[in-house]
Amino acid sequence: MRGARLPRANLTGANLKGADLSTVNKEHHGTPLVGVILDGANLEGANLADADLTGADLSHVKNLTRKQLDSARTDAETRLPAGLS
Questions:
Q1: Distance (Å, rounded) from C-alpha 21 to C-alpha 85?
Q2: What is d(CA 32, CA 9) in angstroms, rounded to the nearest whole number?
Q3: How many separate domains does the chain show?
Q4: Three-class SS string for 17-57?
Q5: Does any domain span residue 62?
Q6: From first to last of its 85 residues, what are the pLDDT tens digits of the chain?
Q7: What phi, psi does 4 have (nearest 5°)?
Q8: Which long-range contacts (CB under 8 A, 24 or more apart) does 35-42 make?
Q9: pLDDT digit string, tens, across residues 65-82
Q10: Which domain holds residue 28?
Q11: Residue 36: is it exposed, middle or buried by C-beta count within 10 angstroms (0-12/13-18/19+)?
């Protein structure tokens, strides 16, 4: 999925285990990712601005930064990797 454009895509509940999401949505943002499973996904450079990550399991993603999280919507059910809270 590297470099994919997902305007208005709804990936709610999708299992993207191991997916390379680097540079996804460089031009578009706000993708709903409610409850998505991202085990092993590479989020390096992914634009998560306004992405809805409520309830998403991000505990095993790679290269997720605080800056990316700060631009996304999360909630108490969003599971984060060790070192990010």
A1: 21
A2: 7
A3: 1
A4: CCCECCCCCCCCCCCECCCCECCCCECCCCCCCCCECCCCE
A5: yes
A6: 555 655 556 666 666 666 666 555 555 455 666 666 777 888 887 777 777 888 888 898 888 899 989 988 899 999 999 988 7
A7: -65, 150
A8: 36/11, 36/12, 37/13, 39/15, 41/16, 41/17
A9: 999 899 888 999 999 999
A10: 1-79
A11: buried
- What the block records as the tokens of 67 is 């800056």
- Residues 21, 42 contacting (CB under 8 angstroms): yes
Amino acid at 30: G
Retrieve residue 42's tokens.
């590479």
